[in-house]
């Protein structure tokens, strides 16, 4: 396949029920910005006349005006938008934030300003990405010791910087 060609393989899709909450009127539902995007943009559902001001070092919980019902076996991850982080130093503090399949409350995004200037979050601003992922559950098997590996006990920075 040539560079830039569209893949003919099918992308797995899952149906997610979404509920618009008060204050989300007129705002777009999360959407993919390109055909190969993994994340959908979430927008801020702040009042038109009440932007959220983030001074440097300040964090805020920003509403999206949406609640979702994920199918069992899936989660949603709230991740930073790279352009917002690069341009303004705005990122998602608990990244990735996890939305479990049984959560029914409003999706809110915990933003922090790591930049040097104040930043205003206005109504409709794209503030984060939402990625839907399958969940794999773990079953622990206690053992007296672990087999050796190439890395061994090497931790932070042990494989190079």
Can you walk me through this structure?
- It contains one helix and eleven strands.
- The chain is mostly beta strands.
- The protein has one domain: Deoxyuridine 5'-Triphosphate Nucleotidohydrolase, Chain A, CATH 2.70.40.10.
- The strands form three sheets. The protein has a five-stranded antiparallel beta sheet with strand order 2-3-11-6-8, with no helix packed on it.
What is the CATH first-level class name? Mainly Beta
Count of the domains: 1
Low confidence ranges: none
Shape: globular
Number of helices: 1
The share of residues in helices is under 10%
Cα separation of the termini: 34 Å
CATH topology: Deoxyuridine 5'-Triphosphate Nucleotidohydrolase, Chain A
Q: Tell me which CATH architecture applies here.
A: Distorted Sandwich
The fraction of residues assigned to DSSP E strands is 25-35%
> Which value, in Å, is the CA radius of gyration?
19 Å
Order of helices and strands: EEEEEEHEEEEE
Structural category is mainly beta
The main pleated sheet reads as: 5 strands, antiparallel
Question: How would you summarize this macromolecular structure in one to three sentences?
Answer:
The chain has one helix spanning 82-88; strands at residues 17-20, 31-32, 40-43, 52-54, 59-69, 74-79, 90-92, 97-99, 106-113, 119-121, 126-134.
